[in-house]
Design goal:
11 helices; eight-stranded parallel sheet; 393 residues; single chain; globular
Length: 393
């Protein structure tokens, strides 16, 4: 296996543009610009690979052919309605099928590179459109690129793929698509569905009758900060991954759990997000011989958060993590100001937060986070042969 890291990128991925909308492609443009200015994309062993659109054979592994037809037709029909398209969340836009297929194809290229051994890790920061359903757009997502990529891995012979979703919103589309497939473990940490879209992701959602225990959901109360989030992550994710023994780790790394993100109410820092990327890489190294595919996802603090978070992700995936105290380069700050005047442009790659945490224990007075941990462990651990009350599991 090669030790290279593939970064799937060219500017054509910016065409996934919903217009005057929170999911603004400038966040991806600024991420790549920041990573380039900091020298991450020029590191030894990093290969930039252009995307290729997913064809209909790939897309229909996940999506209904009638839905593909609708995505193609909708931009040409001013009266079109249906399939979740034409809403405020999912407006119709020119080139919708082509740009959505390109994002999906980029994630497929990343996944294939890692599975075939031409790279140990791969990243598509433009991907992570995890809400799209087989026949419906949802949550800013037209085609579900993580699911398309995972389906491709299954077709190539994969027997155990673990999908970990750290977006603030539940990874509902990926969970539904693989709900009854024992070859795919879906794990999602998210703000409670009692408070946030899409209203799913409760602990008792544990997989279909043929795949019990392969859906893992950790819904967290609003306001959770780094220490609580890390406590929940480490109380559940390593245990379920070790029990499942994946051949490859696929992660959706939405940056919208940050404290200044405008669309949700978890209170993480960039430092906490960086710590999570390091934990995911360590789990891939431990369990999958390093095979790790990472995508972007949500994230609506377009200048303040997303470029820094995903630049940390790219640094972790391509080698040495960035020192949090690193200054953002002046040229990048000028570009960010030009692209979005009036927004605060960060001077450093840190929020000056220590993301340390106290490991979970099944004793003492439970906090809201501990109650969430306990509910998840109680629901799913026995299905995986684990003891929900033993902190060693």
């Amino acid at each position: 296996m090669s030790d290279d890291t593939v970064v799937v990128w060219d500017e054509s991925l910016l065409a996934y543009d919903l217009g005057d909308h929170p999911l603004d492609p400038v966040r991806v443009e600024l991420t790549i610009a920041l990573a380039r200015e900091l020298g991450i994309l020029e590191r030894a062993g990093v290969r930039l690979v252009p995307p290729v659109p997913a064809d209909d054979d790939l897309l229909t592994r996940v999506h209904d052919p009638r839905y593909l037809d609708a995505v193609r037709i909708a931009p040409r029909d001013p009266l079109f309605a249906g399939f979740g398209l034409g809403t405020s969340d999912n407006p119709v836009f020119d080139g919708m099928h082509e740009s959505s297929a390109l994002v999906a194809g980029a994630s497929v290229i990343a996944a294939e590179a890692v599975w075939r051994g031409t790279a140990r890790r791969a990243v598509n920061v433009a991907g992570g459109l995890h809400h799209a359903m087989p026949a419906r757009a949802a949550g800013f997502c037209v085609y579900n690129d993580p699911a398309v990529a995972i389906a491709r891995l299954l077709d190539l012979g994969a027997e155990r793929i673990a999908y970990v979703d750290i977006d603030v919103h539940h990874g509902d589309g990926v969970q539904q698509i693989f709900w009854d497939d024992p070859r795919v473990l879906t794990v999602s940490l998210h703000e409670t569905p009692l408070a946030l879209f899409p209203g799913t992701g409760f602990p008792d959602e544990t997989g279909g009758p043929n795949a019990a225990g392969t859906a893992v959901n950790i819904p967290l109360p609003p306001g959770v900060q780094d220490a609580g989030w890390q406590r929940a992550f480490h109380a559940v994710v390593p245990s379920v991954l070790r029990a499942f023994r994946p051949q490859l780790l696929f992660t959706q790394c939405g940056a919208d759990a940050h404290r200044v993100d405008p669309l949700a109410d978890l209170h993480l820092s960039v430092d906490g997000q960086r710590a999570t990327y390091l934990a995911l890489r360590a789990l891939a190294d431990e369990l999958c011989d390093g095979r790790w595919v990472a995508t972007g996802g949500g994230g609506y603090a377009l200048v303040e958060v997303v470029p820094r978070a995903w630049t940390h992700l790219l640094a972790v995936a391509t080698g040495a993590p960035l020192d949090p105290a690193t200054l953002t380069p002046p040229a990048w700050r000028e570009l960010a100001t030009a692209r979005r005047p009036g927004l605060d442009v960060p001077l450093r790659m840190t929020d000056d937060v220590d993301p340390g945490y106290e490991p979970w224990q099944p004793t003492g007075e439970p906090s809201p986070v501990d109650r969430a941990i306990a509910a998840t462990r109680k629901a799913v651990f026995p299905l995986l042969g684990l003891d929900p009350h033993d902190p060693r599991d």
